[in-house]
Design a protein that fits this description.
The protein is mainly α. It has one domain (about 1-65). The chain has helices spanning about 1-30, 40-50, 55-65. Helix 1 (about 1-30) runs parallel beside helix 3 and helix 2 packs antiparallel against helix 3. The chain is elongated and about 45 Å long. The chain starts with a helix and ends with a helix.
């Protein structure tokens, strides 16, 4: 328990950034109709299954249509 309390100041900002990135990614997927690769359902599944930074980063690298 002491080890967790020791790392808590580092974990809290990471969790906030992770959920912020996830929220922005979900908002972007749900408000856009075109994607470079795949469709809305595919990207929702990828982002939700790979929540820990990987899914959102993959979406912005491979799926987001350049406006």
């Amino acid at each position: 328990m002491d080890q967790l309390m020791e790392f808590l100041p580092f974990l809290i900002p990471l969790v906030i950034v992770q959920f912020g990135l996830l929220g922005y990614t979900l908002y972007h997927i749900l408000t856009h109709k075109t994607y470079k690769r795949g469709n809305r359902t595919l990207w929702l599944v990828v982002v939700l299954v790979l929540m820990n930074y990987v899914g959102p980063i993959l979406y912005f690298l491979l799926g987001k249509e350049d406006a």
